[in-house]
Write a structure and sequence with these properties.
187 residues; alpha/beta; 6 helices; 17% strand
Length: 187
Amino acid sequence: MKKRLQIGIIGSAGLDKTDIAEKFAYEAGKKLAERGHVLVFGPELQPPSLSTLAAKTAFENGGTTLAVALGRGKTKFVGMEYVSVWTYPDYAGGGGREVALANSCDGVIVIGGGVGTLMEIAVSYTNLVPIVLLDKTGGWVDKLTEDYLDSRKKVKLFRCSNIEDAVTYIESESIKRNLRELTNKVV
């Protein structure tokens, strides 16, 4: 049986979302539901984030969603009706939720993004979590121009322009990541 992965959809939460970024978010939710993977996201208090749009689509297509939320379980978020499982890591902000979210993923797909997304990218990189940047979606996707975040070359930033390639890459890299963790060496 194929392993059911937990794949994070991370990206813009503000009003700066582009049409192509929204299109990718909807496609990501549908594709993860079709493949049987769990969509991991961080719900927001304000207008629906790209990751909430992806969660909505995944949920509506029979997929499973995992929300890593701020607070202690009493906060109301946009899109709560699209959540299969909640976790509240008890952080009010400032990076705690982003660490919990990134550490819960077998891979992350980045669509645009602001400072929260940058933290999730950095944590994923540090912990050898495969990172996919969806081209031309704005934010950190367009600002990160190198293949690696630093000279340690922990995880190559994979760029692509469609969801199929993004999910296939994470499926492939998750196998290598498991080998890396077993041997503590880059495979």
